[in-house]
């Protein structure tokens, strides 16, 4: 009986480490899903964010952007890279912006460019 109690108590700190590590992974995963996808929540409703996002992409792209209003997904070719922005309603006055970037015929992920566009779009939405 004592051995069983000792083993149970000895495993308790390990399970706490596992829970803490899992929680840290979930928090980190919310901000950076892949090495080319950045996700952030913005304090703007999805409808307004979608209008601002389309305008932002069209100002930065020399080509016509491909925007789907029903799914709120926009694709643009900017600086020889394929940028995709998705706007999702998260709450009444909050939305989630997902930005991804790929270079070289849409085969190589470009996380730095996705981060830059995510930051610039978030600043534009906060105005």
Helix-strand makeup class: alpha+beta
Outline type: globular
The top level CATH class name of the largest domain: Alpha Beta
Number of separate strands: 6
Low-confidence stretches: 17-31
CATH-derived topology of the largest domain: Alpha-D-Glucose-1,6-Bisphosphate, Chain A, domain 4
Number of helices: 3
What does this structure look like?
By secondary structure, the chain is of the alpha+beta class. The chain has 2 domains: 1-31; 33-126, START domain (Alpha-D-Glucose-1,6-Bisphosphate, Chain A, domain 4). The protein is 48% helix and 30% strand. It contains 3 helices and 6 strands. The protein has helices at residues 2-31, 46-60, 111-126; strands spanning 37-42, 66-68, 73-78, 81-91, 94-103, 108-109. Strands 1, 2, 3, 4, 5 and 6 form a 6-stranded antiparallel β-sheet that branches. A hairpin with a 4-residue loop joins strand 2 (66-68) and strand 3. It is globular.
